[in-house]
Amino acid sequence: MDDDVDRVVLRPVAEDDLELLDQLTNDPVAAGEHQWFGWHDPGYLRRRWHETGMLTTDSGMLVPTLGGRVLGLVSWHRSRTGPTSFCWNMGLVLAPEARGHGYGTEAQRLLVEYLFAHTQLHRVEATTEIDNRAEQRSLEKAGFTREGVLRGYAFRDGEWRDSVVYSVVRSDFDKN
Fold this sequence. Notes:
It is a single chain. This protein is an alpha+beta fold. The chain has one domain (about 1-175): Gcn5-related N-acetyltransferase (GNAT) (Aminopeptidase, 3-Layer(aba) Sandwich). About 30% of the residues lie in helices and about 40% in strands. The chain is built from 6 helices and 8 strands, in the order E-H-H-H-E-E-E-E-H-E-H-E-E-H. The protein has helices at about 20-25, 30, 45-50, 105-120, 135-140, 170-175; strands at about 10, 60-65, 70, 70-80, 85-95, 125-130, 145-155, 160-170. Strands 1, 2, 3, 4, 5, 6, 7 and 8 form an 8-stranded mixed beta sheet that branches. Strand 5, helix 4 (about 105-120) and strand 6 (about 125-130) form a beta-alpha-beta unit. The relative contact order is 0.14. This is GNAT family N-acetyltransferase. Pfam families: Acetyltransf_3. GO terms for molecular function: protein N-terminal-serine acetyltransferase activity; protein-N-terminal-alanine acetyltransferase activity.
């Protein structure tokens, strides 16, 4: 396990992680400019953890760590793409001190690897605001392909914002 000191590793959420995860989703400074969507129920994550451990057949959350230090969270949920088809939609939130070091890129790549290894869905997609250049670079480095702009896609901080959609399919990921 000494190798884990120098590389990002994903693991299930533990009860000790819940305080940081709540900060990353319910504190404007910790969440950061592109992830702050307003206050929400502060007990939501704890209840969800007690009910499901943050892992269900339709969604999940893992924590990326480096040397045992929690860097943030990665999450996914099943999203309908047609009458009988679905894909995974994933997201990432890093603690402020973990941003800008490439940890998010590695965490996203590891999550795609995990989802393709343990589920049968063929596509993983992610969206980010059009002015979140750091996340766009991170997704591209993680093997995602930019597909296009979604106009007026997400409401944050009093206005509708355009987003960029990225995806990776199994055959793309196998090439990386």
